[in-house]
Specification:
The protein is mostly helical and 407 residues long. The protein has 15 helices and two strands.
Length: 407
């Protein structure tokens, strides 16, 4: 992958995405401040080595996605991994204990499936990214058989979410579906009865499935222990105590944090390896400066994708941008309850979104004349390539975009 990227850079066919450069800036800050603040340099070096490997992958994937102007590379990887883990869990019998719970020491305990990964949350949240990938690829698939295969993988991925007993895996699908409908289908809900019927069917299925999951599975019990007073107080107490520790660390070390991967040395009560919050983890270990550098690529990508979604010349491009926005909203929600920056699957997904946003906006930017675009959109009769020719009458070459007329 690195060799192909270097060859592409030499030939000018690989894009250098600013978001990837910002990631390298974040890593430089995190490692340099971590070296000063760390209580264990061994743990710091092991974590830094992994993150720099991630940064190389991000640089490669983002560049390719920018050239393709599509997030398909990252979403496709997430789908393949999610289905593979789900199939392994089913075949190995790892998912067979979904409804098994017992009482131990006055507490309800159960089994959380992990398939081939070490963390059950990784399995559950990975299945959510797999569902997002299905909603991206299935409507664009030309062959009916391929669409059927893609949609049929959704129930299997849902089993992964439930078997992982991850509370995030119960919340994030709802967040994604709402965002997906809002960004991709809202204007068709009242115009096409098929769209309204499909949304109603999905809502009916969720209203039937979720109560059963909450009452009969360990995932449901863990979810209720978080939102209902008096149910599983220990689960909720641990998480809130971790958040208090994180806020305290940020207040005591606001600039540089306590050092990358150093939180376990400050958690003397629960001995957790992380703060279970992406934002608190980054702020506590790299400081508020590190948090700003970490969030900068996300904010920039949201701005790019929103602009592409707003000014897209085709329904396909608008749908692609809509799915990307729905994924970004879901990622933002996931960051409140899970540490994401140490996950390779997360970075592959984000790199694809970064590259797509950069490539799509750049293609749109060469055709942009802000005032004319707004007027043309209001008139509902415009040609993007035509606007480009009006702005640059001496340029007759291909802009890289087809001449698309709005209905």
């Amino acid at each position: 992958m690195v060799a192909v990227t270097l060859i592409g850079l030499k030939r000018g066919s690989h894009a250098v995405v600013p978001e990837a450069v910002l990631l390298w800036c974040f890593l430089a800050w995190a490692v340099s401040t971590g070296w000063v603040m760390a209580l264990s340099t061994d743990l710091l070096l092991v974590g830094a080595e992994r993150l720099f490997q991630v940064a190389v992958v991000v640089f490669c994937v983002a560049g390719v996605s920018a050239r393709l102007r599509s997030p398909a590379l990252g979403l496709g990887a997430c789908l393949v991994v999610a289905v593979m883990l789900a199939v392994y869990g089913m075949v190995s019998g790892d998912f067979g204990s979904i409804g098994e719970m017992s009482e131990k020491g006055g507490m309800v305990v159960g089994v959380r499936a992990r398939s081939m990964v070490g963390n059950a949350n990784t399995l559950g949240v990975g299945a959510v990214w797999g569902v997002a990938a299905v909603t991206y690829f299935a409507p664009m698939a030309r062959r009916r058989l391929l669409r059927i295969v893609l949609w049929s993988s959704v129930p299997l991925l849902c089993v992964s979410m439930i078997a992982s007993a991850s509370r995030k895996a119960l919340v994030l699908p709802v967040v994604y579906l709402v965002a997906w409908i809002w960004f991709c289908h809202r204007k068709w809900l009242l115009r096409r009865w098929q769209s309204g019927a499909a949304v109603a069917a999905v809502a009916a299925i969720l209203l039937w499935v979720y109560p059963w999951v909450l009452e009969n599975t360990y995932a449901g019990y863990r979810f209720q222990s978080t939102i209902e007073p008096g149910v599983g107080f220990f689960e909720r107490d641990v998480r809130f105590q971790l958040y208090r520790v994180g806020v305290k660390l940020v207040a005591e070390h606001p600039i540089a944090g306590v050092g990358l991967y150093q939180f376990p040395f400050y958690d003397s009560v629960w001995r957790h390896a992380s703060l279970h919050s992406d934002y608190l983890e980054v702020a506590a270990t790299t400081g508020l400066v590190g948090l700003a550098l970490y969030l900068a690529p996300y904010v920039l990508t949201v701005r790019r994708v929103r602009r592409v979604w707003k000014f897209a010349g085709t329904e396909a491009e608008r749908y692609r941008a809509g799915v990307s926005l729905a994924v970004l909203v879901t990622v933002a929600a996931a960051g409140f309850g899970q540490v994401l920056f140490s996950s390779l699957a997360y970075w592959a997904l984000m790199a694809a979104l970064w590259g797509y946003a950069f490539g799509a906006e750049r293609a749109l930017g060469g055709l942009r004349v802000q005032g004319q675009v707004h007027v043309a959109i209001k008139q509902r009769n415009f040609s993007v390539a035509g606007l480009h020719r009006q702005q640059y009458p001496g340029v007759t070459g291909d802009t890289g975009e087809p001449e698309v007329h709005a209905p």
